[in-house]
Amino acid sequence: MARPTANFRCSECGWESAKWVGRCGECQAWNTVDSVDAPTRAVPSARISAARVAKPITEYTSGSIKRTTTSIEELDRVLGGGVAPAAVILLSGEPGVGKSTLLLEVASRAAAQGTKVLYVSAEESASQVRMRAERTGALWPYLYLASETDLSTILGQIDAVKPQLLIVDSVQTVSSSLNDGLAGQPAQVREVAATLTRVAKERDLPTIIVGHVTKDGSIAGPRLLEHLVDVVCHFEGDRQSTLRFIRALKNRFGPTDEIGCFQMTGEGIEEVPDPSGLFLSRSVTPVSGTCVTIAIEGRRPIPVEVQALVVASSAPQPRRVVNGVDSSRVAMLLAVLERRAGLKLSNADVYVSTVGGIRLTEPGADLAIAIAVASAARDMPIITDAAAFGEISLAGEVRSVSASAQRENEARRLGYETIIGADSPHVREALRIAFDTGSRQEIRGARPF
Question: What does the entry list as the binding residues for ATP (predicted)?
Fold first, then answer.
């Protein structure tokens, strides 16, 4: 009789193999193939009582969710108004971005209102967290602190403290004795996350879990981790800047198109309810190579200044350096400007950057980038009260973008009366408006666009 062979299955995508491999043959993920020892058996159907028989959806009533505010408006905005009962929130971000500082602030404000909070630190000692709490003013009697890495011990702490809010930092550093392997491996992360989620649902306990990210920015561990939790938030920011953003990638209780803005200071983390002036330069006199656009981050319009510099080059391949914008998008816009607007840029070095470290990924910034490059190439500033937004096609057409009315209202609120957008059908017409062709022909001294 043939000896049955062990099966192996990928925890990420479910791909099966007759032998163990280090890399999945389907999703190409490393160290996700585990053995499946138990043979599959047919599951018998269960007897359903009359009270649990499925009913038409029209017979069910929808109850409103009673949320608990975190007293941090920017975070409540992203969560959809606050923390839902029994919700499990996964907060991811790069090392050093400020995840622990943000959650310590959440715990501090909840404890200040009389909410019993259990903060479990699996990465730092209790004394290290205490030092940060002294610096940020997070010392409250209702804030309980434990430094544990064993899952069963954390469950014991929950039984002893009986918290109303649980924070675990982080899921990749907690291990369970029921699984072999070190903490952070897919099987361990899956077991820890599933157990914490089950406890949160059984005890109606809101839980916030910190998750690490890989080099490419995705959450470390099995993909199942994101499916288990209710909300997935990403905390991001540039180490050279104090500005931080939090956005929801998944939210079962609210929208996923909101963004929260924070700023890291020496005393901790602070909210930035109106980031209008963070991404604009402070120059009083008009400068060539600059243009303001109105970007949409979530549902919030944010003014961003795009700066460009064009320098003559004798190199066979001129340089194209960008910061805060997509390099391939800039290369396309340079080709459109040269072909459709008559700007000679193939023999010049072009540098494009944003102010304040923000990153523009939407096509609505195309027009502002094109105007800034044209202003730098002509070494002539645009009119001072102009803001531009719109997508540019390869034919040079300016297309409308989403939330145009919201962008225009924000621009006028900040004093930008000349709005350059979809009303200009072509990039040449947009450039004429930006440089005010009719009244400044004698200043330009160059042929019209």
Answer: 93-100
